[in-house]
Amino acid sequence: MNREIDTIRRDPRREWIARNRLHPEHLGVLAELGRQGASAATEWMGPNGVIRKNPHAPGFTGPNGLKRIDRSGVQQAAAAGRGAGHRMVAADERRRVTIEAPAFLVAVVPDMPGGRLSSHDRDLLGLARQLADADPARPCAVLAVAFGEHNREGGGELKEQAFAEAGVDRLLTIEGDGHTGFVPEAWLAGLVAVERELAPRHWLLPDSALGGADLGRRLAARLGERPATGVWQVDADATAPSGWRCTARGAVDRLDIQRPLPRVVLALAECAEPVSETRHAAEAMTLSQSPPEALSRIEDLGQVAVDPAGVALAEAEFILSAGNGVKDWEGFHHAARMLGATEGASRVAVDDGFMPRDRQVGATGTWVTARVYVAVGISGAIQHLQGIQGCDKVVAINRDSGCDMIKRADLAVIGDSSSILAALVDVLERDPALTRKGEKQDAA
Amino acid sequence: MQPESRGLEVAVLVSVGRHPVTGRARRADQDARGLELALSLAAFRPDSRVRLLHAGQRDDDNETALRGYLGMARGVGTGLERLTLLEQPEGADVVPALAERLAATPPQLVVTGARAEQGEGSGLLPYVLAERLGWPLVNGLVEVESIEDDRMTLLQALPRGQRRRIQVRLPAVVTVDGAAAPARQSAFGPARRGSIKVEAALAVPDEAFAGWTLSPARKRPRRLKIVKSASARDRFKAAAGKAQGGGGQLLTDVTPEQAAEAILRLLEEEGVMR
Ligand SMILES: Cc1cc2nc3c(=O)[nH]c(=O)nc-3n(C[C@H](O)[C@H](O)[C@H](O)COP(=O)(O)OP(=O)(O)OC[C@H]3O[C@@H](n4cnc5c(N)ncnc54)[C@H](O)[C@@H]3O)c2cc1C
């Protein structure tokens, strides 16, 4: 059992070389020790069944010969090559769940704004799991129905993984040319085809302005089911026909309605905890026959260019924000117009009089929820970062690669703000496909 | 002007609202916006006529509230001098009555609010009506741009202040968004002068609703930020809330052009440039 301990042989000379970083063999010995260190047991079962730990095992010898323990795992990873393995373990911590023959299906139709599962979608999938996993003896599967283009990111693989981690067992993608834009009739035809073929026990949709609220009500009306809308809590209840009871908001959020859970459920955000401990199969499924061409009486003529300056900062989708690092204000305003972005500012830019007060982002300004936030010459003071907590993607343009905004950013470019903004405008002016939109904004 | 002999018939379904602070019965905000929108159609279709329809109980409170809609009349001949009340007993499902009525004398456009201010407030009524009548439905209407023959072009509200242009074939049901033009004031004179025509209608009790328990809305619990992590260091970092590094792409030593390309690529990917 504890043979490893018994056979430990110390080699004082090698230990000395390992401590002496000026020794010519220092690196070689370190590498050798590192290899050994990885294989040496740090935990084992003691003779009377108690787990024992070797307190000397963790850590590494620092550059000046002292033993160091770095709990962030960063340096250890570099020293002993443990990092890669470590991170893999972290990624695989989720229990894998595969459901072969589900007793029934719980269908979820996520909103997927921007082609990604929103947090509302994840909450809903968590609720679906709650319904599907209630009876461990009869496991049920969660089916996600997605329409058309939703794999903008990562070309497919990432998307599947996102679905798997959100708790989806089966993934049905209804594709076709007719499924882009606002085509409620085609979507509804797709869902009805799913209903006819798979007959899920429950249909869950987000009760959100992004589309779920509308589609869910259409579906319920078509199926002739009376849905529960604005559901924010679901509990088990043996007396209800479906075995569940829900609490829903009514009368413009003034009432709580307790009722048995119906087949079609439109739920609010935070209706359940999202899945965090398991990883599901997200196995792709197809319908045996494609949904029928729906008679289309509603035609989507495309989104209208609204004046971005008129959009309230708190609900703007795309913000170009200026800080103390903006020197060319004309260029900044021009770039915002060309990009069609709403303008924001840091407090310094506002205090210096370059931007109006109602454009200030941050703790004492507006808390923004943009999908894309471009910070131009903003250092990322904590008061400013608080205001952009709700943003999805942050782009930083800054001269200082060490500032806090760079740490927060999903894409950071180091350089002079004026010249980068000018280059952006240049590209937009050269590319007719992009400028078309810009010009429309200019004309408006 | 138009080839049709009959003018454009618009039915506005109105309900009794409830003031958010005082709780008094009033004209419902979204329905009033719907009526405002219907009245604005006269600007490009002078032959349009508005019909006001309400299904519900008949009592003093409701009548005062409903007269609020009649008070929006400006000039005569718009059809606003009368409101039809399909009388329903308490606890009735109003959809069958409305559907029957609309099917019997079909208008070309039905305008409703997104959801009622009382009762279940599920916002389902327009959908069920559209389904029964077999008409298309467009939600979140903010503005009608034009009506030509049987095609109506309109603007739909999207989240984040965005708008989408949609063309729909009439007859259709539309629901009005809170972003539509606010309703004009209700004037006392026309409200008094207008008449409420009470008609008997199909009464179907809403049995399901009667079986539910209603209570004043409870405050929803705030979700706690739970950090599931094995290492105490990660949990501390998450709790301390300082921006964490990592994950992001960092471009140093690039020309402004390359930087611009990279930024534009991300913007394109996110689909925010339109
Ligand atoms: C109580 C309180 C509340 C506050 N509330 C807010 C708030 O709500 N919102 C807010 O924003 N601030 C707030 N602040 C202020 C905040 O602490 C910071 O002072 C402020 O956010 C800094 O703004 P900045 O990043 O624009 O300026 P700086 O910190 O000066 O940063 C400028 C950045 O631009 C870069 N830069 C300089 N020149 C260029 C160039 N040519 N090209 C590219 N980059 C360049 C620099 O590297 C630097 O990173 C608050 C402060 C207090 C005390």
TrEMBL record, chain A:
Protein name, UniProt field: Electron transfer flavoprotein subunit alpha
Alphabetically ordered keywords of this record: Electron transport, Transport
GO biological process terms held by the UniProt record: fatty acid beta-oxidation using acyl-CoA dehydrogenase
Family: Belongs to the ETF alpha-subunit/FixB family.
Alphabetized GO MF terms: electron transfer activity; flavin adenine dinucleotide binding
Chain ranges of the Electron transfer flavoprotein alpha/beta-subunit N-terminal domain: 106-304
From TrEMBL, chain B:
Pfam families reported for this sequence: ETF (PF01012)
Domain of life: Bacteria
Domain Electron transfer flavoprotein alpha/beta-subunit N-terminal: 34-200
Keywords: Electron transport, Transport
InterPro entries per UniProt: ETF_a/b_N, Rossmann-like_a/b/a_fold
Keyword DNA repair listed: no
Designated name of the protein: Electron transfer flavoprotein subunit beta
Record organism: Billgrantia endophytica
